[in-house]
Structures are given as C-alpha cells and as structure tokens.
Amino acid sequence: MNLSQILTKREFEICGMLAQGMSRERIAKVLYLAEGTVKNHTASIYEKTGVRNKAQLVAMHIANRQAITEISISPGSDIPDLRIAYAGPKLRLIGLYLLPDVIPLPLRSSGRPFVIGRFDVCVGKKQQDFEFGQDTKGVSRRHASLRRTENQIVITDLVSRAGTYVNGKQITPGAPCPIHHGDHVSFGCLGADYIFEDID
C-alpha cells in the first residue's frame, strides 16, 4: 500500500505522527490545528487504509516502504552518480515521498561528525554535510549528527526543535545514541523517516 497515493499530504503527515506515538492533542499543537480537525483527519486515515486500531496503523506505516531507484552521491561530491550505488552506511527513506530517497553517510573511523540539517535561506549557502530543502517541516537547521566511534555508529540530536527519534523513541539531546543496521531514524515527526543501513 502506497500511503502517499491514497492519503492527502496532511493525512500523510498526521499518519506518521500517530505512528510515532504522538497524541492528537500534541499533533494539533505541532501543526497549529484544532484537535477536532486532527480527529477528523485520523478518522479519514482509518477509513481510507482500512486499519481498525493504532497498532495496525503503526504496522502499516512501517511496512509502507516505497520501491525507489537509488541515486547515490560519492563522498565529498554533490553530483549524483547514477552508475554505482554508494557502498557505505546510509539512511534510506521510508517516510514522506518528496524527501531525498537516500542519504549517504561517509563516516570515517573516529572522524568528525556528519551533520544533518535544513538549508537556511537567510545564509544562502550550504552549511551542514547534508541539508534537507528549506521548506522541509520538522527539521532544524542543525538537527542531528552521526559519527563512527571505534566499534559503533552513534547519532546525536543537536538540541533540535522537533527532536530526533530512534525506533520511535525520542533520544536525549546532546547524548550520543548507538544505531544499528535496520534501525528506524526520524528527524522530527513530519515525515523525515529513514532506515539506517550499514553493510559492515
């Protein structure tokens, strides 16, 4: 089931937030909506998808992984390379279909952090290692960083406004959190949902 084709954009946002465990009251505050409006959208989501409870909704959201062609970027280059796929660790999109399909993570052993954020139109030039588009909701200008230590890869929330989530649980800002192949990583709660892949 391709949720992006059967739900409206707003319903898709709310579906992802419900799957993250957010209450309707919290969703209403984040999206600046009336709680009744969120309730109506939720009812529409249930009707369109055929789910009957929140557990089914969460399972459906996790299973909603779209078949996409990977466009990879070589480390140190902003030019897409359509011939070979980036072989290192990466984040693969499972959330909002308008976001980048793959985020390559050129992490060197005990090297500097790889910072993920949102493009700042006021600055007008790239500041982070990877930047979502300026209109990406829920992602801060400096949102999170990933770094390879001696024996693992860790992600750290950089005191972002909407938080960083690993497997549906918000991580503590400023505290490195280990991630492993197959973990679900979300930047905020509005669709920037990825699966961490590490061939090592």
Brief overview, please?
The chain has five helices and 13 strands. It is an alpha+beta fold and about 200 residues long. It has two domains: about 60 residues, Orthogonal Bundle (Arc Repressor Mutant, subunit A), CATH 1.10.10; about 130 residues, Sandwich (Tumour Suppressor Smad4), CATH 2.60.200.20.
Structure characterization notes:
The chain is α+β, with helices and mostly antiparallel strands and 200 residues long. It has 2 domains: 3-63, Orthogonal Bundle (Arc Repressor Mutant, subunit A); 72-197, Tumour Suppressor Smad4 (Sandwich). Helix content is 24%, strand content 23%. It is built from 5 helices and 13 strands. The strands form 3 sheets. It has a 6-stranded antiparallel sheet with strand order 4-3-13-12-9-10, with no helix packed on it. A 5-stranded mixed sheet has the order 6-5-7-8-11, with no helix packed on it. A hairpin with a 5-residue loop joins β12 (184-187) and β13 (193-197). α2 packs across α4 and α2 packs across α5. The protein is globular and about 50 Å long. The two termini are 31 Å apart. Mean pLDDT is 81; it is low at 65-85.
